[in-house]
Amino acid sequence: MITADLIIDSLPASSKKQALELMASRAAGLFFGNPDQVLNALIERERLGSTGIGSGVAIPHIKLPGLKRMYGLLARLETPVDFGAIDGRPVDLVFMLLAPVDSKTTQHLMALAQISRFLKDVNTCDQLRACRGEGLAAILAEWLKRQAA
After folding, report:
1. Residue of 21, 42, 61, 124 with catalytic role
2. Average model confidence (pLDDT) for the chain?
3. Which domains does the chain have, with CATH numbers?
4. Is 108 noted as a catalytic residue in this protein?
5. Which pTM does this prediction carry?
6. SS3 letters for the chain?
């Protein structure tokens, strides 16, 4: 679902909207041609309720037409932003999940659960916040390896 080219080490966003805009643009450039469609879907999802799950983490997730599989985009923000998170804390780690419209709900929920477990781990989040460069991908790979064991 996520590869090193889908990790943004330092996202220069100063607001929730700007973070979503920058991530939508990156996602569109990598595997989906229309950043406005991605952004509009993300904004609509946020209107239903914030995807800020607490502890400085957000997991925006949407379904889009035209995707062949699920994609994930992990970003560490340069400066935490207000995401309307359930605990009121600003967000600095964002994992955006994009799924095909026709994906089964169970697949989407399983992916969200896996991402949530990854980002609810305090040690993992501390490591993500402390490392630089390719370290983000290494932390994710190590976590996935531990989950498979």
Report:
1. 61
2. 88
3. 4-148 (3.40.930.10)
4. no
5. 0.91
6. CCCHHHEEEEECCCCHHHHHHHHHHHHHHHHCCCHHHHHHHHHHHHHHCCCEEECCEECCEEEECCCCCCEEEEEEEEEEECCCCCCCCCEEEEEEEEEECCCCHHHHHHHHHHHHHHHHCHHHHHHHHHCCCCHHHHHHHHHHHHHHC
